[in-house]
Amino acid sequence: VFQRRFVQFNGRSLMYFGSDKDPFPKGVIPLTAIEMTRSSKDNKFQVITGQRVFVFRTESEAQRDTWCSTLQSCLREQRLLGNPRPPQPPRPLRTGMLELRGHKAKVFAALSPGELALYKSEQAFSSGIGICFIELQGCSVRETKSRSFDLLTPHRCF
């Protein structure tokens, strides 16, 4: 069963959102984590990483072909520049598992100067495949009850 998602590629990361109005993605796949893409039937294409195969479905065969060719072209260019594998993630100031409101399981958080990155697991952190990356400029932290806190951004409260 496919869930409708708004997908965006900025040349460095493939991000998918719940809708085109969402300020934060539901998932981020860095280009450096993608091993290959391939088209399949029913307007679907696969984005293959070392950890997982992501399957996307487009509205038309032409859209599928455009997505595949764009991603494959960027992957070729990345390999020509000598960056075929994900670099080691920058060393965060603090990492650990956190409970995130709205998620059933705990998430792995990595705090770096100016950014809080959320991942499904420590393994996802190692491969660079995140849930979302929160720019901390303009954010504030509010302590709440029982060892928890809210991260207030201009767009959303985490």
Explain how this protein is built.
- By secondary structure, the chain is an alpha+beta fold.
- It has two domains: 6-81, Roll (PH-domain like); 94-157, PH-domain like.
- Helices cover 16% and strands 39% of the residues.
- The protein is built from two helices and twelve strands, in the order E-E-E-E-E-E-H-E-E-E-H-E-E-E.
- A four-stranded antiparallel β-sheet has the order 7-8-9-10. It has a three-stranded antiparallel β-sheet with strand order 1-2-3, with no helix packed on it.
- This is ArfGAP with RhoGAP domain, ankyrin repeat and PH domain 3.
- InterPro entries: Arf-Rho-GAP_ANK-PH_domain, PH-like_dom_sf, PH_domain.
- It comes from Mustela putorius furo.
- Residues 1-76 form the PH domain.
- GO terms for molecular function: phosphatidylinositol-3,4,5-trisphosphate binding.
